[in-house]
Amino acid sequence: MALAVDEVFRVSGIPFSWTSTGSKVDGVPYTGFLELDFEESREGEYVHAQRTDGTPLGITSGLYKIDGFRFKTLIDTGEQICQQLALTPGANGGFGNARWIYILEIFEVGNPTMTVTIDGVKIEKRKLSTAKGSEALAYEFECKALQVTTVGAGLGLTGVPNTLANVLGGVFGALL
Fold this sequence. Notes:
This protein is mainly beta. The chain has helices at residues 75-86, 167-175, and strands at 8-11, 14-17, 21-25, 28-30, 33-43, 46-47, 58-59, 63-74, 100-108, 111-130, 137-144, 147-152, 162-163.
């Protein structure tokens, strides 16, 4: 059975049923998310030094960054999120000043199969749009973020947190 366009939540273009996913903003669950997309990268540099065959001695641990984090919500959901974020400590009434955590849960038969946590999110752009397949108004948000962590807890998944970033370096670096 095919799903109608307006019954689908897309993660990086991949369709999921709305009943198979859940979204939380700073721990508060929301309905009305339409799309989510993020990219992360780690760019290491080759370390060259005296070696007879000319091959590098190694690669640096590199610079980790979230290249983009975007999401789309129905307009009322977007307004609720902006109001919540404007009230967070340190936001000073502006939702763009808030730093927060986004959590996506993907379900398999009622239990979370995979959790994606995006930490240190800051909204940088918001624009009016329309929801695919309908005339409903939507918001598109473009954000910066600090780190993405995934955890699998279903068939064939280990449940061990996975991240492209150096978590310990980030934690200890923040303490120094």
